[in-house]
Design brief:
Elements (H helix, E strand, L loop, with lengths): L37 H32 L2 E6 L18 H15 L3 E6 L2 E4 L4 E3 L10 E6 L5 E4 L1 E3 L4 E2 L4 E5 L10 E2 L2 E2 L1 E2 L1 E2 L5 E2 L2 E2 L6 E3 L15 E5 L4 E10 L4 E4 L21 E5 L10 E5 L4 E5 L11 E4 L5 E4 L6 E2 L1 E4 L2 E3 L10 E5 L2 E3 L9 E2 L2 E6 L1 E2 L2 E3 L2 E5 L2 E5 L7 E3 L2 E5 L4 E3 L6 E2 L2 E2 H4 L5 E2 L2 E3 L2 E5 L9 E3 L2 E2 L2 E3 L2 E3 L6 E3 L14 E3 L2 E5 L6 E6 L2 E8 L2 E5 L8 E6 L4 E6 L2 E5 L4 E4 L4 E4 L2 E4 L6 E4 L6 E4 L2 E4 L10 H12 L1
């Protein structure tokens, strides 16, 4: 302890009896200069010593607490590791499931600040879905992170690599699958192989719908090679904004009639009659060995269990990575109302080879991968499952991840989920939707719609940002890049969305202005292009229902071509019930029809947009919508020639960006 030497030369005041004590007594003590003050100094030293010791103890305790809170635990997983190992970097575990067990045990025992499971280079194959529960990380008190080791390609896969191929010398290779596998997709060295179809590209035309306009139709003679067996053959028929995939009951070559095993198109909705949108709708056939005539096509015979694949001559499949998805769902979050799964993060990982098979009674799409599931009569619409999904997720994050080569949809942040973030991720080559947020209106609570009884269970405050979404809907063409049901405070910003068969972003799920918890959603600064490449009646952004406080702003949308079908394709399609939305500062050009279209919409505001159109196409189309419902302020309308050069728009893009940013 060091005394303050500044007191060394201070004058000592008179004592109470008027005597002055010799200041040289105990002069070697820096601060105790008078004999009459000895006891006082001793007591002062004692008190200071006690305080010092207490400070040391407190500091030590804080250090211990700080050490515990900041403590991080790491486990390492390698496909070449061992589940009997310690889980260190030098002795990694082998499976993600075992690493999860170790992580949960550590959290339960010592409650560290965070546990990170590092996935090293290679394919981490899951034998079953990885389930995550709220108690696994003490309701979020410990952060749980799944992370790719830096500089590696770490893939979480639900697939099986095929082997033991035999060839016929003409490029057809075959292998026999075990009885548990019934593949819908096949991937060869990271590329999607095509299930054999006729025609190889494009489509055929229905000659005439059958008498019931649902179960059968006529075809033209010679339209396709007639399959010898129908057990694995589906008809894929295009509606305006969705498709049906139906197994066949019969092909009558004498009367040129195709009959499906059940009604084609959603039951109970007459506009799904085969000839409602077009007298001669599009279709193709899929799954017969007679159609196997092009490289990178494949078929599977469920009876013989033989999978056949056509490869370029001279190519040996033994040297290739040929994978079928077999696990439906890679990761599942199991939260519940009042007890969500919290504080889980995934960083830098690739998720691949999750399966989703068409049900036995077919797939009849309603919209955005919701479908009429005949396997469960009387059930509300079913939804195509996702590789990663969960309900009641909170503060969970996906950062720098890739979702690719998937049989169903990519990621579904479901019912009751709050404050979850998808950032800098890449979604590509996905059979269904890229990302889904929230839920529709089907769930019941006390026999009533959930949004009436428990509106606080709305998915709220979730964000998708700075991500790339492309080539979704690879098999289910009515899929969308990002689907948001009844959600609140959702933010979709700064994403690039392209190369889709249907709509890029769909938000809202109520076909009228019935009040729901949907509100304050923001879709801003997204770049959307080359969409609606197969279907119609959609847009770069598609909306439904009452959504007070919501904004569609600063989006750059272009190159939306018209497809065969009765309905339009638009830059934005604000469909039934769309109300209380502001559409502002968007740039929309090179659109086959109107940049904006309203259909049975309520009161909305359109302001400060750059809208390009040809002279014969209105910038805003009003279908069953009074024009006075739409308040228009300071929009700029440009008439351009059809098929104008993309370079024409460069100066306008620069001007729009400058004005938007200010």
């Amino acid at each position: 302890m060091k005394f303050d030497t500044a007191h060394e030369n201070q004058r000592i005041p008179f004592s109470g009896n008027g005597r002055i004590v010799d200041r040289n007594i105990f002069a070697d003590w820096n601060g105790c200069f008078k004999f009459q003050k000895i006891l006082h100094c001793v007591m002062s030293i004692f008190r200071l010593t006690v305080i010092f010791v207490m400070l040391v103890l407190i500091s030590g305790c804080l250090g211990m607490i700080s050490g515990r809170v900041s403590d991080v635990v790491d486990y390492y997983v390698s496909p070449q590791g061992s589940d009997a190992a310690s889980g260190t970097r030098e002795a990694p575990l082998q499976t993600l499931h075992h690493a999860m067990e170790r992580a949960v045990a550590t959290i339960q025992e010592s409650s560290p600040e965070s546990v990170t499971i590092w996935l090293t280079e290679g394919i981490h194959t899951l034998s079953r879905t990885l389930e995550i529960f709220p108690e696994d990380n003490l309701q979020g008190k410990s952060k749980l992170v799944f992370k790719a080791f830096p500089g590696t390609g770490s893939v979480v896969s639900g697939g099986v690599k095929l082997s033991e191929w035999s060839g016929n010398g003409q490029g057809i290779w075959q292998t026999t699958l075990s009885g548990q596998y019934n593949p819908s997709e096949l991937f060869v060295d990271g590329s999607r192989a095509i299930k054999a179809r006729h025609p190889n590209t494009g489509y055929l035309r229905v000659r005439q719908a059958g008498e019931d306009r649902r179960t059968n139709f006529l075809f033209e003679p010679g339209d396709f090679p007639v399959p010898a067996q129908l057990s694995d053959v589906h008809v894929v028929l295009f509606h305006d904004w969705s498709i049906s995939r139906m197994p066949l009951a019969n092909i009558d070559i004498h009367n040129n009639r195709i009959t499906a095993i059940d009604s084609i198109g959603v039951k109970g909705l007459p506009f799904f009659n085969l000839d409602n949108w077009e007298a001669h709708p599009r279709y193709y056939l899929e799954g017969a060995p007679e159609f196997l005539d092009m490289e990178m096509e494949w078929v599977f015979d469920a009876e013989s269990r033989i999978l056949s694949l056509k490869l370029p001559e001279g190519v040996d499949p033994a040297s290739m990575n040929i994978t079928i998805p077999v696990l439906e769902g890679l990761i599942r979050f199991n939260g519940n109302p009042g007890n969500p799964v919290r504080n889980i993060s995934f960083e830098g990982l690739t998720f691949s080879h999750s399966a989703w098979n068409v049900p036995e009674w077919g797939y009849n799409g309603v919209q955005a991968c919701h479908f009429d599931d005949r396997s469960h009569p009387g059930k509300p619409w079913s939804v195509v499952s996702a590789a990663i999904s969960g309900d009641w997720m909170s503060s969970c994050r996906f950062d720098g991840c890739k979702f690719t080569h998937l049989g169903g949809s990519g990621l579904w942040i479901g019912s009751g989920s709050e404050e979850c973030t998808v950032s800098r991720c890449h979604f590509e080559d996905i059979s269904g939707n890229g990302i889904m947020i929230g839920e529709g209106s089907d769930r019941k609570v006390d026999q009533r719609p959930w949004y009436e009884v428990v509106p606080d269970q709305v998915a709220r405050g979730n964000t998708v940002e700075y991500s790339m979404i492309q080539k979704c809907g690879a098999r289910l063409f009515g899929a969308v890049g990002i689907w948001c049901g009844l959600t609140a405070e959702t933010t979709i910003q700064g994403n690039e969305i392209s190369d889709l068969p249907y709509t890029a972003i769909s938000i809202g799920w109520m076909w009228n202005d019935t009040p729901t918890p949907a509100r304050d959603n923001v879709i801003e600064n997204n770049h959307i292009y080359h969409i609606l490449q197969k279907l119609s009646d959609g847009g770069g952004i598609y909306s439904l229902g009452l959504q007070p406080g919501s904004r569609l702003t600063g989006n750059h949308i272009h190159d939306v071509k018209i497809n065969t079908g009765r309905a339009e394709s638009n830059g934005m399609f604000l469909d039934e019930g769309t109300t209380d939305i502001v559409v502002s500062h968007n740039l929309i050009y090179n659109i086959a029809r109107s940049p904006l279209r309203f259909h049975r919409a309520g009161q909305n505001k359109v302001e400060n947009n750059f809208l390009f159109t040809t002279a014969d196409v209105p910038p805003i189309m009003y279908n069953a919508t009074p024009e006075e419902n739409i308040l228009k302020v300071s929009n700029r309308i440009f008439d351009v020639e059809p098929d104008i050069s993309p370079n024409f728009f460069e100066s306008y893009i620069a001007q729009w960006m400058e004005e938007k940013d200010h």
